């Protein structure tokens, strides 16, 4: 019996798939025979879709790109994955999917469906719409010998919310939003021709281009302006940082908004109707540069800077809400926010959210606070004020505050 | 029943836990979310209470049963030899079919997640072969295997779930109010359904030593199983949201596929697949052991070994014939199998065991 068991166990070694030879089911791939795909593109073609994969071969660092056309993403990718120069494309490490604007307008759902179903791709793949051109052209334009286009896209994914230009939603976030809310946001990018600063760079530069609003039923896709995108990021709490120029006193002061806190308060009437939604944005900013001269330690300076910053951010947030209401698409998920705050009152509301939403008054209040000015306060020779002793400055500062 | 093949109550409970992990991580969270919606992550608490009640009931019935008496013996004592044997045969046939279903489920899951171009035949045959080898051995070997594997399985599941924390969004889990109470109860049904599987393992209780100092009504396995259900449901729902989770066949696996540990380690799903395979293998082997144990009691022979390959062949046939494709199989999986399972574990078997107690047979 023991010999039989041993023989059976020995035979089971042939089932592991960890060698290319004596296995009945081999999933083994030699590293020199694979292409590690980092980016996928999909564009509209005359006879369907033009797809491409971009990545690196297993043993080499050179970026490689392959393309194919077919009636559907599944067919085009299926042919290409198994036949790029005899190597097999591995999609398990794909970081981003770029979709051309024309294709996204008609078949965005197919892109998401492919990522969700294919056994190698991950739902956390970043999704981007390329405006004003084909995704494959952008990828080709970005690719110099160094850096690779995928590195540029990875940098965008990581840093875009730190410069306040947008946020790369993943396929998971887009699919979940479409499934739950019927509408989703997708980050848009654009290729811009600029002078090459060094030879190894590609011909195009990558620029964020606001959010696209897409719907579950594949209806018309709309694009948000830069200001609306900023407002959307504020309201969705996706903004990590943003530098803003403020005309304060006789200066143009640049502040960096670092901390953002957004809170919501639905106000219901006695009859159970939702009367309005109060939104409160609390921003903390730091002065990072200044053109002109002013005493930044004075309360007047700070108050003016805070008021101007609040105004800019309030306009941005109000613009995003107004656009959402005008479109009749709750891409800010205000219904979800109200339902988490007041689930029972929302359920009992006499009016359906869909009919209420386009005219719902949304009151936005922004409170900004200038936290610090870093080491340079106000050299008197720049501002032209008389030099004061440290004691005088302290007493003045105490009076101010 | 040979005196050499004895296990402790703890070993039996570990075997139950490791075996039931297999269906638990297969059906969750989708089954619970379908019924319980967004609030399904609270359902494991309800399922735990219900499971505890059933466990206490069955333990109370077993309390005065002498050592060496399994559930099949209890049924024969309670219902009388004739009716008891008929009932036991009915249980054996159902469990053989159920083993086939479990085997096919394991194969389908591997195909839909990892090996899209593979064949169910390979997985079914291999699974049955390994299960036959294990079930042909002693019950204590199987229990000991489960005991050795349990910390690894628990560790892997805990590590994987903790790694998923960054993706969890409270927006997908809230709000939950008292109005969701009905949803929470509905969501508990599939989880409770899996938990009730412990009743089948009582057919092996004849192997349990009575002289052990460990109290028979211990239920840490139930706590662990409920925690697993909670973790799987909470993290999947929190990551994908209700609608997306429901639309996916293996939502938990999709979450696992996205895990990145400190931005360094990714694609950890292979570890989870290993957990699946191990639990499927233990569950299959345990089911074949249970079926063979019932046949041994019914026929009165000393050794159950001969019944294992026969049961495996029948289970294999069931696995192949149960459905032509994944769509047809899904229908079995959604309604019929859970319904029959619950009928056996919640009504027929407890009722049969209760009759003996009422007739003061034990």
Describe this structure in words.
The complex is a heterodimer of chains A (401) and B (362). Chain A has 401 residues and is α/β, with parallel strands linked by helices. Chain A folds into two domains: 189 residues; 177 residues, GMP Synthetase, Chain A, domain 3. Chain A has 13 helices and 13 strands. In chain A, strands 1, 2, 3, 4, 5, 6, 7, 8 and 9 form a nine-stranded mixed beta sheet that branches. Chain A has a four-stranded mixed beta sheet with strand order 10-11-12-13, with helices on both faces. In chain A, α7 packs across α8. The longest helix of chain A has 29 residues. About 1% of the residues of chain A have low confidence. By secondary structure, chain B is mainly alpha-helical. Chain B has one domain: Amino acid/polyamine transporter I, CATH 1.20.1740.10. Chain B has a two-stranded antiparallel sheet with strand order 1-2. In chain B, β1 and β2 form a beta hairpin. In chain B, α5 crosses α6. The longest helix of chain B has 33 residues.
Features:
A: 401 residues, 2 domains, 4-stranded mixed β-sheet, 13 helices, B: 362 residues, mainly alpha, Amino acid/polyamine transporter I, two-stranded antiparallel sheet, 15 helices
**What characteristic shape of chain A results from the CA principal axes?**
globular
Along the chain, the helix and strand elements of chain B come as HHHHHHHHHHHHEEHHH
Number of helices of chain A: 13
Structural class call of chain A reads alpha/beta
How many strands of chain B?
Answer: 2
The Cα radius of gyration of chain A reads 27 Å
Indicate the radius of gyration of chain B in whole angstroms.
20 Å
The greatest inter-chain interface is formed by: A-B, 26 and 32 residues
Helix/strand/pairing class of chain B, anyone? mainly alpha
Amino- and carboxy-terminal Cα gap of chain A: 90 Å
Note the overall shape of chain B.
Answer: globular
Q: How far apart are the first and last residues' alpha carbons of chain B, in Å?
A: 19 Å
Helix content of chain B: over 70%
The CATH class label of chain B is Mainly Alpha
Report on the biggest sheet of chain A. Answer: 9 strands, mixed
Low-confidence parts of chain A lasting 5 or more residues at pLDDT below 50? 379-384
